[in-house]
Design brief:
mainly alpha; 19 helices
């Protein structure tokens, strides 16, 4: 589901046209008021709408690729069947849950980590693992399905209704706007909406959703994709200014790219009457690293808190030190198969621990923000640089005082053509304005996107997106995770 690609919107339009034809063919009372429908009619029409939603989502997955659709169906059906079996008590709870988790994550482990573990760690030299492509969205829907199983089994003890129907679960697990890159939704928030789903578009929901889509496409096409033209890491350099510039460009690019997808998903969900979680809350205006992780990829951070950190004992075990480091190591592994991702997770874990330890020290807001951003953008080097030799060489450059000399700064400036200097300066200025608007919205209204929803700002974003969107389409970065 590449919201930045015209093919997706054409496929979605074709799918909705097919939905409309089918609904008309079976004479659904969609244009009549719900009060005019009898109870059996309402049930039948709602059920057909839910089947059509599932068909639309599955069709769009097949449009992405047959492997993506096949692996999703495997994970979803294994989750549903395995959870039912465990609820029925047909297997011992502990071993049964372990077996279910193993079956749920087996495709994720094979496709995402098979090459790293088999060839880089175990040195097996298996070419089949090298060419294995990662099904789009596998990390996201696998985690969503795992949380469903755990919440459902826990819900049995809390006297909640244990299992939904298969169709409702499939729509929960595979709601197409968010399946490939989140947000990672929970059973309690998304499943009830799926159980009551109808194709009933309202002017208010379409308007609200369109505002989010406009923001998301502006973030992605105008900012993220243009920043990607100048974010080309990968070479050893003796200039610390060059390394920091690449860290800055990558950090901004991945934020506007990933937040752009999440906001588009939020908007498309509103079109269908479904409320999804806001996944980013202006993380680059955070004043400490703990707050940064409350506002960056919010649903993943909450997932790790609820299903890894707290089950490991939270603050009760080693004052939370070991569980916290495990969480960030797992987070690094979740993002990618490579030593650099493991180091990236460990660095963030150490930064959070350092903030906890120094919690009694009250820092000025600007100083706290500057220290937090310095740590975050330094850590991006470990995220994007997969070649460990280049990674450690450029890390050595960063900590080398001579690498900050004026001649090294001139080397960075001379690496850009005169026209590129102007364009890049304009892009960085624009990102600064966007972040300041996020900060103002967050402080004054508790909503970092408040000002982006205003009509004049929406018009400006539309014009800028049309004028500045690069001709070449780029996939969303997190499609690879």
């Amino acid at each position: 589901m590449n919201f930045a690609e015209i093919r997706f919107w054409m496929a979605l339009g074709a799918g909705l046209l097919a939905v409309a034809v089918i609904r008309f063919a079976v004479r659904l009372p969609g244009i009549r008021s719900q009060q005019a429908e009898s109870s059996p009619e309402r049930h039948a029409s709602r059920q057909l709408d839910q089947w059509l939603l599932f068909g639309l989502g599955l069709g769009l997955l097949f449009f992405v690729g047959w492997l993506t659709a096949a692996v999703f169906l495997y994970v979803a059906l294994v989750t549903y069947g395995g959870t039912r079996i465990l609820l029925a008590g047909r297997l011992p709870a502990g071993p049964g849950m372990a077996m279910l988790i193993l079956l749920q994550i087996s495709p994720l482990v094979f496709f995402k980590y098979g090459n790293f573990v088999g060839n880089e760690v175990l040195q097996l030299g298996m070419n089949s693992l090298v060419v294995a492509s990662i099904p789009v969205g596998i990390s996201f829907y696998t985690f969503q399905c795992m949380s469903f199983s755990w919440d459902t089994l826990r819900g049995r003890r809390e006297s909640l209704r244990p299992m939904p129907g298969l169709l409702h679960f499939l729509n929960y697990a595979g709601f197409f706007p968010q399946i490939v890159a989140g947000p990672i939704e929970r059973r309690t928030s998304l499943l009830p909406q799926m159980e009551n789903f109808r194709f009933q578009f309202s002017a208010a929901s379409v308007e609200r959703g369109t505002r989010w889509v406009v923001i998301g496409l502006f973030f992605k096409l105008c900012l993220g994709d243009n920043l990607s033209l100048y974010s080309m890491p990968g070479q050893v350099t003796e200039s610390a200014w060059t390394v920091w510039m690449q860290n800055l460009l990558f950090g901004l690019r991945i934020y506007f790219d990933f937040a752009g997808y999440s906001l588009c998903a939020l908007g498309v969900g509103h079109w269908f009457g479904i409320s999804l979680s806001i996944n980013f809350l202006s993380p680059y205006t955070s004043r400490n690293i703990t707050d940064f992780w409350r506002r960056w990829h919010v649903t993943l951070s909450q997932w790790f808190r609820d299903y890894v950190y707290l089950p490991l004992g939270g603050n009760k075990w080693t004052a939370g030190v070991v569980p916290l480091l495990i969480v960030f190591l797992v987070s690094g592994v979740w993002h990618g198969a490579g030593w650099n991702f493991i180091l990236w997770g460990l660095i963030h874990g150490l930064m959070v621990l350092a903030h906890r330890t120094a919690g009694a020290i009250r820092l000025n807001g600007t100083i706290g923000w500057a220290l937090t951003m310095a740590g975050v953008f330094l850590a991006w080097l470990f995220f994007y640089q997969t070649d460990t030799a280049v990674l450690f060489s450029n890390l050595g450059t960063i900590i080398s005082p001579p690498a900050y000399g004026p001649d090294m700064l001139r080397e960075l400036v001379s690496s850009y053509a005169s026209g590129d200097k102007v364009v890049l300066a304009g892009l960085l200025l624009m990102t600064g304005v966007v972040l300041l608007l996020e900060l103002a919205g967050h402080r004054r209204h508790g909503d970092p996107y408040f000002y982006f929803g205003l009509f004049p700002v929406q018009m400006v974003m539309c014009v800028l997106t049309v004028l500045m969107a690069p001709g070449a389409q780029n996939n969303f970065i997190y499609f690879a995770f």
